[in-house]
Amino acid sequence: MILEHHFASLGEAFSSKTLVQPLFEQRLVEFNQSLATLLSIDIKSTETKRILSGEETLPSSLSMVYAGHQFGGFSPQLGDGRGVLLGEVRGQDGLLYDLHMKGAGPTPYSRRGDGRAVLRSCIREYLASEAMTALSVPSSRALALYDSREAVYRETPEAGAMLLRVAQGHIRFGHFEYFFYQGKQAELDQLIEYCLTHYYPDCLATESPLESMLIAVVKRTARMIAKWQSIGFQHGVMNTDNFSFTGETIDYGPYGFMEDYEPDWVCNHSDHEGRYAFSRQPGVGLWNLNCLMRCFSKHLERDQLIAILQCYEPELQTHYDSLMMSKMGLNSVQDMHELLPELFTILAAEKMDYSVFFRLLSHFEQGGFMLLLDEVVDRERLSNWLERYELARMKNDLAWPKVSASMLAVNPKFLLRNYLAHDAILAAERGDYLPFRRLLNVLITPFDEHPESDVLAQRAPEWGRSLEVSCSS
Ligand code: AMP
Ligand code: MG
Prior knowledge:
This protein is α+β, with helices and mostly antiparallel strands. It has helices at about 35-40, 45-55, 120-135, 175-180, 185-200, 210-230, 280-295, 300-310, 310-330, 335-350, 355-360, 370-375, 380-395, 400-410, 420-430, 435-445; strands spanning about 15, 25-30, 60-70, 75-80, 85-90, 95-100, 115-120, 140-155, 155-165, 235, 255. A hairpin with a 5-residue loop joins β5 (about 85-90) and β6 (about 95-100). The protein is globular. The site of magnesium ion has 3 residues, from loops. Pfam families: SelO.
């Protein structure tokens, strides 16, 4: 493993030197071999193992400083309160990846926090980030999970853990806000240069590299959120310090994958006003980008910044349309637009499970039609919709088996349901990682049938419908 230290080379204004502080009786309990292969990391090497786990002192490891709009209010100084960037590694795909340890102990930005993470939240992040990757959503990933015998105090004492995660970048919108609101122009310019060099090198050759890069950021963010909306993912804490400049989903906390279709669903129980409700995510994405653009008001004219922001909506809409067309097996946007609003009304009225519906729709000609009607109270209304849908689908030139196969490749059988995560967490807390591994195994190949794991495709039992997740983890 060749660890590079590009971010560290930016200097002291950007971070503080911080070492990972291993936990008491820490154990490596899960390791992501396919990701390690991409990163050319050999976990069998004792030295690599020690570096990754924080047992080896890495003089260049650091915690980043940033700011951010949290639930609408500006916090001028935040930072990695419990995360340490070990450095970067070059993947076999030529891209640079950050290695970042979450729960690594106190940092200069921990404020009143203990710098730790609990096993529960590390497992939730591991499962979600790998599930999102399998669903083709740009996301940070999980490389390794460590548990320990160290107690970490939340509402009750819990098991302390660390998650080694990987993302192309951990630079957040809040990084730019930090320097902009302090009037640190030179550092802001340095950060722009850094991002152009490492993340958006193609923009360097254009007439206005900054403008091109910002358009790319807007478009990546739009596409990321289009994906969230199409799969029913809700982030839960869309603060600007949790929004990555590389358009990846990061900082999994009180997230949720939509089960019963409910557009105004709020997964985070700390979000009392529903600021980050599912249906609001596209609007919040734009709000966050607007915060980001303000940071470049000394570099670009107002009109230019507005024009950049105007790329957001069409990009999101186009991408969302094409994702929903694939989910429905249609090839006409117009037909999709005519069918989708009524479908959403039916799903909401029936509180139908979002992913189960699309999976059944993908089996339509194999008896799925009746199965679908059995799911609802108002059979006539769904039956009318299905008739219209069938007419639209017949316009697809491909033979049904091909359409079905393409739908089954985008409509997952397995979803990270809260109750499944909950079961896996309870077992892991007892030292049994088998349920976690079984669940992970279906989530990383969610479109396969896995008949032996049918039980993991089932909807939540009554007890599992009222589980709460909140910001504290
Ligand atoms: P999050 O919503 O998890 O991204 O956290 C918001 C901010 O609080 C980030 O700057 C975190 O680093 C920080 N934070 C969360 N939990 C802790 C903790 N236990 N100790 C120190 N800082 C924390
Ligand atoms: Mg965060």
